[in-house]
Amino acid sequence: MPWHVAPVQRSIAAVVVFLFVLVLIVGGMHYYLWARLVRPCAFGLLWNRRAMWAFLALAAMTPVGLVVGRLVDRPFARIATNLVFAWIGLAVTLFFLLVASEVVRGTVEGVSELLDRPSSDSRRVLLSRAIAGTVSILGFGLAGTGIWSALGKIAIRRVRVPLAGFPEALAGYRIVQLTDLHIGPTLRKLWLERVVAQVNALEGDAVVITGDLVDGSVRELREEVAPIAMLRARHGVFFVTGNHEYYSGVDEWLVEITRLGVRVLRNERVALGDEAGSFDLAGVDDFSARRFGGGHGADLARALAGREPSRALVLLAHQPKQIFESAARGVDLQLSGHTHGGQIFPWGLFVRLDQPYVAGLARHGETQIYVSRGTGVWGPPMRIAAPSEIAVIELFPG
Length: 398
What we know:
This protein is an alpha/beta fold and 398 residues long. It folds into two domains: 5-150, no CATH class; 155-397, Purple Acid Phosphatase, chain A, domain 2 (4-Layer Sandwich), CATH 3.60.21. The chain is 46% helix and 17% strand. The protein is built from eleven helices and twelve strands. The chain has a six-stranded mixed beta sheet with strand order 1-12-2-3-4-5, covered by helices on one side. Helix 1 runs antiparallel to helix 2 (45-71), helix 1 (5-37) crosses helix 3 (75-114) and helix 2 (45-71) crosses helix 3.
């Protein structure tokens, strides 16, 4: 067998397995929605059949719409993608609400059994209709407010962080953090221009972008990302890669981001400050970068080589899970994103299975970490109980 056949076969097998799992998840979720929102409500055979076909169409539309939106850079394709993403957000919200409603259903059935008054068919239908109606109203309401939260004005989150060894002369130094903007099918140039205006109005000392700036190629998004060149800060604008840069043609993006006047930190560090005092800012490639080859991969040892331990050090690392190595190597503060704070509650509970921290400021041993909930969105254009943010990290001696 030729040497190149086995890797190709593994790639094809991985794609087949991924598609199979995706179909199972999407199909299973849509079946559950139909089975709880429609079937037990006894609206009649015709209604049940129409609803079943509607849910089948929505289930099929989900992967097809995502593929079309990814492969075709046309306005109608972007509209289709946004509609699919909006439905995914609504469906996920309805799914979690229905799962929670199982407690109500089980409690009613249990109480009826204890009272020796088993529920009749008419009572079960009435209960099912009440649950379906309540879940639908709550689901559409939460989805609507989630879209408003995701696409409206972004909150400014100010975080005060004391650092050992931080110079008195720089007390109050402000790092403005953007992360997970995900410029692509949903968020475009006009939205980014508003974000840039908000950041510039803060007059930060430095601006950092901790990964996942884009979802698409340079060819598709060059004009959409152009407003990044308008970011202003006294000591410059800095960037580290996130996992989505590696899905979007990372090498081309590194060239383009540099062309826009942003300093890319790839396993390296720079000094920020002036003659009166300074500290170190370091950045590493995304945690998953090494598997993409091409010399990519997080290398914190290289970034910190020759470092003076008494100097305060702030590290930019896209994924919070980098904190384990950061703490072992004496990093003072790590700034991360990636999690979106869960984006749609209660998804943050599942994010914790992969990441040690999901949102906010925390301490891991002697190292502090701040995880931003993110500035943009990925997938569904909505945020529920996880509002987007622009973080202003204010550094003080501590």
